Amino acid sequence: MVEGGGVTSEEGVVSMLTGKMQEALTGQLIAEMYSAYLYLSMSSYFESLNLPGFASWMRVQRLEELVHALKFFDYIVEAGGRVLLGPIDGPPTEWDGALGAFEAALAHEKKVTGLINDLVEVARAEGDSATEEFLKWYIDEQVEEEESAEEVVSKIKAAGDDLGALDAELAQRS
Ligand SMILES: [Fe+2]
Ligand SMILES: [Fe+2]
């Protein structure tokens, strides 16, 4: 341990992150990879429902999650830490129709918001104001993530059984 609670690796590189902070950030990196995996699984499910616009929306969402994951990767590296990756859980493969899938996506985003809030708590407990500042982007992003899933849930409910027009609309997301 060095001053400020950072850790020194075997190579002698001083990290700005405590061991606990690095572990928590890496855990969230893996959670973002899981989100990408989950949405890719949902994309496959929508293909099976013959809803290519919904499937495409989920493919775009998957890319957003990979961006979230890489921002954690870059932050850990720039702080002088080391990313030690672990396994990603397998996602579900079936949902209860388009509404069931998007309700699951919304519930998942709410869960992720909770994980980000937990991460902020760790940063505070570790006295790591730089990481706390870094996490502000994710707090704002989670508001948008919940909103966009919620918006599609509402649109599915309004569309009822005819999802053709909504499928065409969701196909526009790039
Ligand atoms: Fe994310
Ligand atoms: Fe997300």
Give an account of the 3D structure:
Helices cover 71% and strands 0% of the residues. The protein has five helices and no strands. The chain has a single domain, classed as Ferritin, core subunit, four-helix bundle (Ferritin). The chain has 174 residues and is mostly helical. It has helices at residues 19-48, 52-78, 97-125, 129-159, 164-170. The model has no long low-confidence stretch (mean pLDDT 94). The longest helix has 31 residues, at 129-159. It binds fe (ii) ion (2 copies). One fe (ii) ion (FE2) is lined by residues 35, 65, 109, 112, 145.
Helix content: over 70%
Number of strands: 0
Outline the biggest β-sheet.
none
Order of helices and strands: HHHHH
What is the CATH topology assignment?
Ferritin
CATH C-level label: Mainly Alpha
Could you state the CATH homologous superfamily?
Answer: Ferritin, core subunit, four-helix bundle
Strand content: under 5%
Structural class comes to mainly alpha
Small molecules bound: fe (ii) ion
CATH hierarchy: architecture: Up-down Bundle
User: What spatial form do the alpha-carbon principal axes imply?
Assistant: elongated
Task: Specify the number of helices.
Answer: 5
Q: Could you list the spans in which at least 5 consecutive residues all have pLDDT below 50? A: none
> How far do the termini sit from each other?
46 Å
Radius of gyration: 19 Å
Q: What is the typical, i.e. mean, pLDDT?
A: 94
